[in-house]
Design brief:
The complex is a heterodimer of chains A (266) and B (285). With 266 residues, chain A is mainly α. Chain A contains ten helices and two strands; from the N terminus they run H-H-H-H-E-E-H-H-H-H-H-H. In chain B, helix 3 crosses helix 4, helix 3 packs parallel to helix 5 and helix 4 crosses helix 5. Classes of the chains: A mainly alpha (266), B alpha/beta (285). The structure holds adenosine-5'-diphosphate and magnesium ion.
């Protein structure tokens, strides 16, 4: 559990740390779309270079990023394997029953793998360099237009902030309760699937009970301090869009343009 | 059952952040049947020490020997389970571990894990509920309907039910009213005296240390700086200040009195009773 890198913030002082969270959010979403623009080998190389540049600029070690990929590695390998075994076309290397290994399949696999991994790396750059509260602020700002459709954007963002705020507590508490049950002889992660699920009950029930209690306490405290859901709220942390944010957007635009151009040239 | 730590170090690792040497080359022997208090400032590593003794954290270096069992880096699961059977650990706020719909089922959880049959577990539950000073009618109640002090005792019963030889308690009195605190400590004293259970108690409350414990261990920044009888611990007030520890009321009174009156009382007074006795003795002279 402690190895999970997803959604963890790494304090730092890099260029990317100082970008506006809105810029980083837009970049992450845009990058996911742009990754699918890479349609040939030079395009893939460009995509990888851009990703590595972002990773280098973030000042977070490469090993940390690899750890971010690790939980998804089986999913990635499975997808890649599917491509290799089931797509035929081009030159065929091996044929065995329903399986074919062909140049076309391998090529598709390389593309899928690259898109998968660059997208994970790039979004990890964003989550590693942005504090959760800043991410929520950015998200709230980007969702503002939805107010027109009566979406309760501020309440949603409050909910997300609270949820993010309590994740560390929840993890601590899970660890504590697991330790306590282990001390009473419980063994986790062994035996049949049914057994493994059964031993989770002594963890989740106390966890639910304490979360409900905490929720109630928090609601009371918010009430006492005068929180009202319908009130228009100002923000303590102000977001500032700077020149470097514009530049980062332009860099993404350049990447998109570059990939499109490579597609046309080929 | 004896506990013997030699050169034990322990670290925590959360993601990339490492807290090194939470325990720093600990050498410690806790005699069988003793009642030992572990004290020290917050963050000294007291809770971590308890977890090592229970095999929940494995030593990075060195080893902990509990009876015949050896806990060291890479210890196998069978050993660890055997250790946890012999060593009961009551966590801070242990009521957060209660999960079953009746007190009885919750108490049975430990024994069942350690291989007791359902029948045996029920017999044990009926037995330990009395040991923690509650009557058998509690067995069929929902644990969530109990008061704070009762819940705490049910949680402790859940550990006792595993029939440990050594009982470790991490701040078992935190958050209870004074009566509830005394009750728990009186129970511990009784188990120690009557069943020869080895007890290791982590606490902040020096009055309780003075009254209940025989041996004291002072832990500062992961190192053991003192391990001797409780009376020796409270002899030198200057040293305690260095370790950020208080004096028990009676001893503080004694020192103040000695300073102001110039009369030295015989011995180190740990409790009000001892203080009263010493005062009477001096008065007669
Ligand atoms: N689960 C944990 N993960 C990381 N560090 C921890 C954890 N628990 C304790 N620590 C660190 O270990 C040190 C000792 O903690 P602890 O054993 O809880 O001390 P004490 O019980 O004496 O207050 C502290 O510096 C604390 O920050
Ligand atoms: Mg502690």
């Amino acid at each position: 559990m402690n190895k999970l890198i997803l959604g963890r913030y790494f304090p730092g002082n890099s260029l990317i740390h100082h970008l506006d969270p809105r810029a980083k959010l837009v970049a992450a979403i845009a990058f996911i779309l742009i990754a699918f623009l890479a349609g040939n080998v030079p395009g893939l190389v460009l995509l990888w270079l851009f990703t590595f540049l972002a990773m280098a600029l973030s000042g977070v070690g490469f090993r940390i990023y690899l750890r971010g990929v690790r939980p998804l590695i089986w999913l990635i390998l499975f997808t890649v394997l599917l491509q290799i075994l089931f797509i035929s076309g081009g030159r065929t290397y091996v044929e065995w029953g329903p399986f074919t290994v062909s140049s076309f399949g391998i090529e598709t696999a390389v593309f899928i793998f690259s898109r998968f991994v660059t997208i994970i790396f790039f979004t990890t750059v964003v989550t590693l360099t942005t504090r959760p509260v800043d991410l929520t602020d950015g998200l709230t700002f980007l969702m503002r237009p939805l107010r027109l459709f009566h979406v309760p954007v501020d309440e949603l963002s409050m909910m997300v902030s609270i949820a993010l705020r309590f994740i560390p507590n929840l993890l601590d508490e899970t660890q504590k309760i697991m330790d306590a049950q282990r001390a009473r002889g419980a063994v986790f992660g062994e035996g049949s699937l049914f057994h493994q699920m059964k031993v989770l009950v002594p963890i989740f029930l106390p966890l639910f009970a304490s979360s409900l209690n905490r929720g109630e306490e928090l609601a009371n405290v918010m009430d006492v301090r005068g929180y009202r859901a319908e009130a228009r709220r100002s923000s303590f942390r102000q977001l500032h869009w700077r020149g470097r944010d514009t530049i980062s957007m332009l860099a993404l635009l350049a990447l998109a343009a570059g990939l499109a151009a490579l597609n046309l040239l080929a | 059952m004896e506990i013997k730590l030699s050169g034990v170090t322990a670290d925590y690792q959360i993601g990339p952040i490492r807290s090194p040497l939470v325990l720093d080359h600990i050498n410690l022997t806790v005699a069988s049947g003793s009642f030992t208090a572990v004290v020290g400032p917050t963050g000294a590593g007291k809770s971590s020490l308890m977890k090592v003794l229970n095999g929940l954290i494995l030593p990075e270096e060195g080893q902990a020997v509990i009876g015949q069992l050896v806990v060291r880096k890479g210890a196998d699961k069978k050993t660890l389970k055997a250790v946890r059977k012999r060593v009961g650990l009551v966590f801070q706020f242990p009521e957060s571990q209660i999960f079953a719909e009746t007190v009885e089922k919750d108490i049975c959880f430990g024994p069942l894990n350690f291989g007791a049959t359902a029948e045996e577990a029920c017999t044990i539950a009926a037995d330990v509920i009395g040991q923690v000073g509650l009557d058998r009618t509690f067995l069929s109640k929902s644990p969530f309907s109990l008061s704070g002090g009762q819940k705490r005792r049910v949680a402790i019963a859940g550990i006792l039910a595993c029939r440990p030889d050594i009982l470790l308690l991490d701040e078992p009195c935190a958050g209870l009213d004074p009566d509830g605190q005394s009750e728990i400590l009186n129970l511990l004293t009784r188990w120690n005296r009557d069943y020869g259970m080895t007890i290791v108690l982590v606490t902040h409350d020096m009055d309780r240390v003075a009254r209940y414990a025989q041996q004291a261990v002072v832990l500062v920044k992961g190192k053991i700086v003192f391990h001797d009888s409780v009376r020796r611990l409270f002899t030198d007030p200057a040293r305690l200040k260095d370790w950020d520890l208080d004096l028990p009321e009676a001893r503080r009174f004694q020192l103040k009195l000695e300073k102001h009156s110039g009369v030295a009382l015989p011995g180190v007074c740990l409790t009000e009773e001892e203080l009263a006795e010493a005062l009477i003795k001096v008065g007669r002279v």
